[in-house]
Amino acid sequence: MSWLSKVRKSLSSLAKRDTPDNLWMKCPNCGEMLFSRDFEANLSVCPRCGHHGRIGAKARFDQILDPGYAVLASPKVAENPLNFRDTKKYADRLKAARAANPYPDALTHAFGTIGGAKAVLGVQDFAFMGGSMGMAVGEAFVAGAGRALAENCGYVICTAAGGARMQEGILSLMQMPKTTVATRRLAAAGLPYIVVLTDPTTGGVTASYAMLGDVHIAEPGALIGFAGQRVIQDTIREKLPDGFQRAEYLHAHGMVDMVVHRQDLKGTLAMLLGYLERKEVA
């Protein structure tokens, strides 16, 4: 046996150290290798390029709401009403999504305060079937708006969705007018409805409650639109401008009121709720 083989054999007998697979991550925008713990401590924003990573409902609640908030129960709806199946049963897709996520569907609410201002906060999680809008999301939105009416406080929603949930067909599209009516109830009561557009917000969500707020805030670089860029470009047969459908482009063209860094989001929401909350006349 050669000396090289002896060395190789001795090295293979050493115990391997257990190293977590998710210790490091690569920024999807600039490619910088980031220590995962530091990335999370920076609110999942790349310290080099400022890219805002996608985060779940629990992280949003912790970042925006003051300590002591309460997560609201998700309303029950009929599951798989069309008995839909593609390569998998819709029921199986729901089961897999729930196993991988902490909440039962794409939209979850919590009640608490934001910088001392009472509010109901709804968060759409893109990790749950692309944040798609189905009957559960529509019913959750109405319930969140109803809780805001009952508490006489503002309603804030962070949107993130690929659009309507195709497995529920026309029933998913019916959530567009349903949620629109809920926003009108808030307006009639004089309660603020604030939308935080996060990456991505597209399709039927953009065409309904995501663009009906009293104030529209967008996170930097967020993709916001209805149809996809390739569909639009092929339809109008023109090259789209740089940054089209990104938060900064929409802000420059009057579709978004402000683009706010995640570190400043809580303070901005607290300020807006203070300005817009209904004042009782003595």
Question: Would you write up a description of this structure?
Answer:
This protein has 282 residues and is α/β, with parallel strands linked by helices. The chain folds into two domains: 17-51, no CATH class; 52-276, 2-enoyl-CoA Hydratase, Chain A, domain 1, CATH 3.90.226.10. It has eleven helices and nine strands. The strands form two sheets. It has a seven-stranded mixed beta sheet with strand order 3-4-5-6-7-8-9, sandwiched between helices. Helix 5 packs parallel to helix 7 (175-188). The longest helix is centred in the middle third of the chain and has 17 residues, at 135-151. It is globular. The termini are far apart.
Structural class given helices, strands, pairing? alpha/beta
Please write the string of helix (H) and strand (E) elements.
HEEHHEHEEHEHHEHEHHEH
Average pLDDT: 93
Number of E strands? 9
Helix content: 25-40%
Features of the shown structure:
282 residues; alpha/beta; 2-enoyl-CoA Hydratase, Chain A, domain 1; 2 domains
In short:
With 282 residues, the protein is an alpha/beta fold. Helix content is 37%, strand content 17%. The strands form 2 sheets. It has a 7-stranded mixed β-sheet, sandwiched between helices. The protein has a two-stranded antiparallel sheet with strand order 1-2.
